[in-house]
Amino acid sequence: MSSGLLSEPVDELDPHESQPTLHAVGHHPRPDLVAHPGGVDAEAAERAAGELLRALGIDLEGESMRGTPRRMVRAYAELFRPRPFQLTTFPNDEQYDELVVARSIPMRSVCEHHLLPFVGTAHVGYLPGRRILGLSKLARVVEQFASRPQVQERLTTQVAGWLQEQLSPKGVGVVIEAEHSCMVLRGVRAHGSTTVTSALQGLLRTDPRCRQEFLALTGVMR
Ligand SMILES: [Zn+2]
């Protein structure tokens, strides 16, 4: 049994990075690295949030808005802080060789261009190779990568890449369907439109029957 904790890399600047950026760190979990390598300076954030709102012409003097900068900071801090978890993989002793799919995993993230939420569902599957992973952990992997300023495309490839790296499966598939507040509430006001992204690797990419089966299980192919 191997275990580790998802951790934040120190360098995560390339927006076109398609490799997984979380990795298992063995027997010395570093929960401090999970979401905030630099920590949150709540006081500075609260001051800045207040300034931002006032600069936008919003009056914070009323009783109900006096605490808004503080609540804003708490809300964003929560959105950017995944629950730490211990990732445990197991050897595939039974040599299970059918698709494992966790579908309709609730997902929420924050678009890094507008800092507005995007919300939807993720379908994550893999064709086991040497190691397997608890089903609930598939949802936690999504949460880890979603709890940061993101773009949906990168989120999708990061989840797939991480599973590929940790499980050495025969194939991996990730499909995310989400509604972006920045599209729905402003700009084009595209009510009801969802964005679908997918990342397929290994047999799920190269074998048409495998891919078909995965996509049918996710319900994306209607
Ligand atoms: Zn956006």
Description of the structure:
By secondary structure, the protein is of the alpha+beta class. It folds into 2 domains: about 40-80, no CATH class; about 90-220, GTP Cyclohydrolase I, domain 2 (2-Layer Sandwich), CATH 3.30.1130. Helices cover about 35% and strands about 25% of the residues. The protein is built from 7 helices and 8 strands, in the order βααββββαβαβαβαα. It has helices spanning about 40-55, 70-80, 135-145, 150-165, 180-185, 205, 210-220, and strands spanning about 1-5, 85-90, 100-110, 115-125, 130-135, 150, 170-180, 195-200. A hairpin with a 5-residue loop joins β3 and β4. α1 crosses α2 and α3 (about 135-145) crosses α4. Zinc ion binds near residues 113, 114, 116 and 182.
The name of the CATH architecture of the largest domain is 2-Layer Sandwich
Which molecules other than protein and nucleic acid are bound? Answer: zinc ion
Mean pLDDT: 83
Q: Report on the biggest sheet.
A: 5 strands, mixed
Indicate the structural class.
alpha+beta
What would you call the shape? elongated
